[in-house]
Write a structure and sequence with these properties.
Elements lengths: L2 H15 L2 E2 L6 E8 L2 E6 L10 E2 L4 H30 L22 E8 L2 E9 L19 E9 L6 E8 L14 E10 L4 E9 L7 E7 L7 E6 L22 H4 L10 E5 L5 E7 L4 E7 L6 E8 L6 E8 L2 E7 L10 E5 L7 E4 L2 E2 L10 E7 L7 E7 L9 E9 L5 E4 L12
Bound molecules: beta-D-galactopyranose (GAL).
The site of beta-D-galactopyranose has 10 residues, from strand 9 and strand 17.
Length: about 425
């Protein structure tokens, strides 16, 4: 409806509403409107005001009825307009992989390489806080390891997985002391948080490293509250002086390419990592070790603060990074990437009956356009949706290598095909629950 017509209709409604009874038709010159059998007229004598209407009907109760019905219609219309306006401000309850995802304050969510803890009916999302200029320092030039200064670990909370409230930095980086593990110049990546029901503490593990990624440490922090502040306990290379449970005589040979034996005394290298709490409450760290060549699965102590000294080598020599581990129908599943820095490669998946293996590779779980490049992303976490069976969210990072702070979150539904293999199908937009086939 054109604006002028809409305005005229509105004016007529107001006039009719304010109309006064009138029997003296002689002064009338013009019938303005004829509505539901009722006639309204405008008087044009010296005293008449142009906006006034007079009702010529004999039965006033008919006019009253009409006015009531008009009032009801107007109220219903106003309510609809208000509802639509309110809806326009509501965030959409859909995931939009790769698009900017704002938190509840309207700022893009800044939580990369992270994971989610579900605790007390609330989801807590922890990730790398990346802010500032991306740079490529001399020490990482050969392999293109661009960086932004380490910002610490951010935390967001949500009850519905779509709307996330920024809870601030759960573990900030340290600006004042360049030697500190959490110094801005150093590396703080892939943080994960689990809850220890015995100690009632929230335990964070992360990849802590020197600016050139040579230290390859695991850092640990604890907090009484899921949103922090977390107390940093320090970092180390796990499992110093301990052979893995599946070690062979050859694995113990000292030679130039045997990184397991090389690092036996001082502890194993630990870079990309994730955590899993099993059904029996035991927790495990999965970390890329042996110069990123082999994954280790390392059991944690009962308080989750240290390695328990029991670990296994899995996917030996497969250069697996970005591990995301979850459990389904009693089996352990892993989604991961190959090893090519921020550049995407083909994702991989694996399954095991026992956490220490043997793990059987199941191939690339991704489907759809650019599935061979993991949709230009890299895995970080698989979240079983609380209270819903067979609903999993596969979380990825779409790294912007030359503008790391603009890296995006890509969340996609993870399902299982008829052979029981995990499948991640690209979607431009989607919502939970995803119907099962
Ligand atoms: C990736 C790794 C990331 C980050 C990056 C640095 O391979 O998965 O977490 O360390 O390299 O280039």
């Amino acid at each position: 409806m054109p604006a002028s017509r809409f305005l005229n209709t509105l004016l007529s409604i107001v006039r009719i509403f304010r109309s006064k009874p009138c029997r003296r038709t002689s002064r009338c010159t013009r019938t303005v409107t004829n509505l539901a059998g009722l006639r309204f007229v405008q008087l044009v004598d010296d005293h008449a005001k142009p906006w006034e209407l007079f009702d010529l009907s004999k039965d006033r109760s008919e006019t009253k009825k009409m006015k009531t019905s008009m009032l009801c219609s107007a109220l219903a219309f106003a309510w609809l307009v208000a509802l639509n306006a309110a809806r326009a401000n509501e965030p959409l309850a859909t995931f939009q992989p790769g698009q900017i995802w704002n938190d509840t304050s309207g700022k893009p969510i800044n939580a990369h390489g992270g994971g989610i803890l579900f605790h007390g009916g609330v989801y807590y999302w922890y990730g790398e806080f990346k802010e500032g200029r991306t740079y490529l320092s001399q020490v990482n030039k050969t392999w293109g390891g661009t960086r932004v200064i380490a910002g610490g670990v951010s935390c967001y909370s949500s009850t519905n997985l779509y709307d996330w409230k920024n809870e601030g930095l759960a573990l900030p980086s340290v600006a004042e002391d360049p030697d500190h593990d959490l110094a801005c110049e150093k590396v703080i990546e892939r943080p994960k948080v689990i809850y220890n029901a015995k100690t009632k503490q929230f335990v964070m593990w992360l990849h802590q490293d020197s600016p050139d990624y040579a230290a390859a440490h695991s850092g640990v922090a604890v907090s009484d509250s899921p949103t922090g502040p977390f107390k940093y306990l320090g970092s180390f290379r796990p499992n110093a002086g301990v052979w893995p449970i599946n070690v062979t005589a050859r694995d113990k040979d000292q030679n130039a390419t045997n990184f397991l034996a090389r690092d036996f005394p001082g502890g194993q290298m630990a870079r990309d990592m994730t955590l899993l709490v099993d059904d029996d409450g035991k927790a495990y760290q999965f970390y890329a070790s042996e110069e990123n060549g082999t994954l280790h699965v390392s059991q944690l102590t009962d308080d989750y603060l240290k390695p328990a000294g029991i670990y296994g080598r899995i996917l030996v020599g497969r250069s697996t990074e970005a591990p995301a581990v979850f459990k389904h129908n009693g089996k352990y599943y892993l989604i991961a990437s190959g090893c090519s820095g921020w550049d995407p490669n083909t994702a991989r998946s694996a399954v095991a009956d026992h956490i220490f293996g043997p793990w059987t590779e199941l191939g690339n779980p991704c489907r759809g356009a650019n599935a061979d490049k993991t949709f230009f992303c890299q895995s970080t976490f698989v979240l079983p949706v609380a209270g819903q069976t067979n609903q999993f969210i596969a979380m990825f990072d779409l790294w912007k290598k030359w503008d790391l702070q603009d890296s995006r979150c890509v969340w996609l539904p993870l399902a299982f095909d008829t052979d029981g293999k995990p499948v991640v199908q690209w979607r431009d937009q989607w919502s939970l629950p995803v119907p099962e086939k």
